[in-house]
Model the fold of this input.
Amino acid sequence: MITFEGAAKLYPDGTVAVDALDLTVETGQTTVFVGPSGSGKTTSLRMINRMVEPTGGAVLIDGQDVRLRDPAALRRSIGYVIQQAGLFPHRTVRDNIATVPLLLGWGRARARARAAELMELVGLEPSQARRYPHQLSGGQQQRVGVARALAADPPILLMDEPFSAVDPVVRASLQDELLRLQEELHKTVVFVTHDIDEAVRLGDRIAVFRPGGRLAQYDSPERLLAAPRDAFVESFVGYDRGVRRLSFFPARELSLREDVVFGDDTAAGAAAASMRGEPWALVVTGDHVPLGWAGAGQLARVPADTALGSLDLAPYGHTFAVDTDSLRAALDAAVLSPAGRAVGVDAAGRVVGVVSQEDLGTALWSVTE
Amino acid sequence: MIAEAWDWAARVVEWGVANWSRPGEPDRGVLPRLTEHMRLSYLSILIGLVLALPLGLACVRWKPLYPPVLTGVNVLYAVPSIALFFLMLPYTGFSDWTAVVPLALYTLVVLLPNVVDGLRQVPDHVRQAAVAMGFGPLRRLVYVETPVAVPVIIAGLRVASVATISMVSVASLVGLGGLGQLILSDGFRRQFDAPIVVGIVLTVLLAFVTDAVLVLAQRLLTPWAREDGGRRRRRRAAGPAGADTAAAPTAPRAAETAEAAVRRPVRTGPGTGHTAEEGRSWTS
Done:
């Protein structure tokens, strides 16, 4: 547990970087500090490993004031990932990762074995061990940065805008990787970013900082999107927070209709008769793989004995996974479907059912209550 | 015409071979002059480097120190070498130090800014990462900042050695030996061109070989700053290796800076014709 007790940083020129911060970072969780530049989030992060010394208040790790510890020893016990990775250009990937173990006097063989372990953990190829940082892509460099921070297995991991210098596709893959690692390792992660989407994606708890180094709100991502405390937080989290908040609700709570799903050998007349006023029918194969939508008008025009599989079907767009996706994915699938309806599938891609607009609407209203 | 030139070249070579070394007279001949030249120039460069490193470190550590120290070094460089040699004579006589002390001080004009720039060009995120990993100030200097500065320091050494090897020739004017003695004493005084040519050719050759050795040293010392060193490996590791989309490989910053440093304006000639200080903006 990391506790900020009225921690403040006032620079001699009168700039207030952090103004009396009170905050508790829970052990084993990911806490994100988010805010615009000049809001003191990085300064606060650096108070934890004494790269910045508070001018007022204190920072405690498990109840002990960090100022009672030797800075170098403290830092070796805390992982740190910096923007642009900060890799040592003159050291190979392997030796970069082994930095802290070597500082701790592990011996070269053990440190290198540990480095190899970590390369595998963060998804680097063993063949990259002897390469130099400039021979890697930005995303790979950042993976090395994460591996280096984890090398001595520190309980705390500080991450200072680690993914801000890579392109969006690589950033998303690094975020996924971090979520996967965290599920496995349960470190106490403090993550600084100016990107609210990244914060919502990664954080168990989010601290929103406002300019002048003040804490605006400290909440779970879901609460932050549902109930921003004031106008600043509301504008910072963005105008589509309502839709984004749907990410926190599972799609499995939706009621799915199976009565408008028909096999491709069903006759058009039989399908039309059992639709009971629904405007669209979903046609699937015998294995329940979706084929496309047939409109009620289309069914009325063709001879009643036409097999649904032989009709010219509207594309079904993209589906959502009933067990793993969120309401947001279901809504997105509905919006992008020509029928205005979302197709729910199981893990194997077989159709489980269709969500009508009414049912989706009901579900959306129920979570906004 | 061609035949004349050929005859002349043959005569020069013949003189050089005949006078290479004289049995029974170990102090006469071309070879002793060459070894003297090497001793004087290498000693000067070495002492210059030994002075520049701590001085550079001090200038990086205490920033306000750098401008006055650099100005001092530049002003010293403006003093004609021949004048300094004569000034040294009463104190050091005809020993090597008469040449080495001024020449070592002259190398500082290139070496000091390169040491300082080399240490300063360590990217901030690298320095910060080193602090965050738990490197103390001394370890950071030894294990991170100095190694990263090596390409820039060697670039400075290359310029300084060529300049010094050239300037040692002037030392012969005050009777300190070296290849300049062939040019000045044997050549000019006796109106005889073979020793002059041999002296010039050997001086240029020595500078060239020294530079090549330094280039080689840099390649061995800093494999990480080499682009082709990586290309071989990169090809081997190509394929489905990376999960990330490959970014354009960026050349290490140190190598770029090193090249820029080589292009710096430097006066290499002996004598008194000091160039104007127009190229000095880079030192600030």
